[in-house]
Amino acid sequence: MSELSINTTQNVKINFIAASVGERLGAFFIDLFIIICYITALSIILFDWLQLDRLMVNLDGWSRGAIFLLLYSPVIVYSLVLESVFEGQSLGKKLLKIKVVKIDGYQAGFGDYLIRWFFRVIDFFTFFGLPGLISVITSQKSQRLGDMAAGTAVITLKNRINISHTILEEIGEAYVPTYPLVIKLSDNDMRIIKETYQKAAAKNDHEVLYKLVAKIESVTGIKNQSGNNIDFIRIILKDYNFYTQNM
């Protein structure tokens, strides 16, 4: 598996592991199974139970085609809709914990998913999917043709390695940040802040904590209104984690 390096708009470098061919194929076949189940269930309901073919016997070809297109449209737009709704994941990708991301550090948008969706015809349904398979295997960032056109890549979330594992702290999905100006700090600043904070807190060195807070305030313009230096630094660490992961 190849490693992808993404530089965010705050010049923070984040490393990801590209999803393997096996993971991508697994997600594809899971999605394909879901689609086949939908088609099978729909066919049973419409033709065996409701006898739709008899009801449409008097309709012209265009009308019958329009009805079938409407009924089976979820199959056509399955990946486009789910990746747009779930931010880069279809049901298959969710189960295998892989995700589509932009390689420039931004969140992929509908336009990116649309480009990938258009290229599915070439990647998956031309020569039994060989173009997509070959491009994933041979490309430096494990991209299929649709990924190359959209500027995206598929990463695994199982072994993701990013800055939060080394210099930041874990935050929950419901976390609400307090200090937007924390983005004035750099990755190296946060490393120094965390290392200094941990050493000072372990030794109960309030003088170092006071100086550290004063330095943060002078660089960012943030004011510690709580008066508790330890809580203030903890919030700074979490806020930086929040903003660098959600930009």
Brief overview:
Its main location: membrane. The chain has 247 residues and is mainly alpha-helical.
- Side by side, the strands of the main sheet go 1-2
First-to-last CA distance = 26 Å
Quaternary organization: single chain
Strand content: 5-15%
Total beta strands = 4
Task: Report the order of strands and helices.
Answer: EEHHHHHEHHHHEHHH
Mean pLDDT: 85
Number of helices: 12
Give Rg in angstroms: 25 Å
Going by helix content, strand content and strand pairing, the class is mainly alpha
Low-confidence stretches: 161-165
| Overall geometric form | elongated
Helix content: 55-70%
Largest sheet: 2 strands, antiparallel
InterPro entries: RDD
Organism: Flavobacterium chungangensis
Protein name: RDD family protein
Main location: membrane
Report what the structure shows:
With 247 residues, this protein is mostly helical. It contains twelve helices and four strands, in the order ββαααααβααααβααα. The strands form two sheets. A two-stranded antiparallel ribbon has the order 1-2. The protein has a two-stranded antiparallel ribbon with strand order 3-4. The longest helix is centred in the first third of the chain and has 29 residues, at 21-49. The protein is elongated.
